[in-house]
Design goal:
The structure is a single chain. By secondary structure, this protein is mainly α. The chain has helices spanning 3-18, 21-33, 38-66, 71-98, 103-106, 108-111, 113-121, 127-130, 132-140, 146-161, 173-183, 187-196. The chain has one domain. Helix 2 (21-33) packs across helix 4 (71-98) and helix 3 runs antiparallel to helix 4. It is globular.
Length: 197
């Protein structure tokens, strides 16, 4: 197993085990207060994306090496979920402090961080729906693309209704987005956002 990965996982468990939730939030807020330039924002968000992808690649390697029901793979998945939860706290606090990152300022990778983290955490506590406004706004302002936003909405739809979203063909990308927003009962939240602008 990758020693660097194990060290990173151990550190996260130690942090989560020894430090209370409020302490973690306070540490994250202190981190966020150091983001004083666009370059700081870019590096912070790109690091989150890198760690998100690194954890998934490592768990995939363990799956390939040891198999689906193996202790190694299951331990890696448990650790990955803990990491995802920590990244979600970081992203949610970032979004509430700064709003969604602008792709034309921080770049495509950094601007994708909120979508990736929210999408990977899932909806055990309603994270997808709780962060809808941020991602909807990012989509409208072209900070995330149609593919990412439709994937996010489709996944939310599948989790909520336990079936895939169906739409009559042919359809335009915005038709699919609008259909999903209606069926997920999120239309009122988009209207409020449009009025706030």
């Amino acid at each position: 197993m990758n020693i660097k990965f194990i060290s990173y996982i151990t550190l996260i468990f130690m942090i989560l085990g020894c430090v209370g939730e409020e302490d973690i939030k306070s540490q994250i807020d202190n981190e966020l207060n150091t983001l004083t330039t666009i370059d700081h924002h870019t590096k912070y968000l790109e690091k989150i994306v890198h760690k998100d992808q690194e954890g998934r690649k490592n768990s995939k390697k363990l799956l390939d090496q040891y198999g689906y029901e193996s202790k190694e793979y299951n331990d890696a998945i448990i650790a990955l979920r803990k990491e995802d939860e920590l990244r979600l706290v970081k992203i949610e606090r970032y979004l509430r402090k700064f709003g969604h990152p602008k792709k034309n300022k921080v770049g495509e990778i950094a601007a994708s961080a909120p979508y990736l983290v929210i999408h990977h955490v899932g909806s055990s506590k309603g994270e997808e729906e709780n962060n809808f406004e941020f991602l909807y706004n990012a989509y409208i302002q072209e900070d995330i693309d149609y593919g990412a936003f439709s994937f996010y909405l489709n996944r939310m739809y599948t989790r909520k209704y336990r079936k895939r979203h169906q739409i009559e063909s042919p359809y335009k990308p915005e038709d699919e987005i609008n259909s999903l927003i209606q069926k997920l009962n999120l239309a009122d939240r988009t209207k409020k956002l449009k009025m706030d602008k």
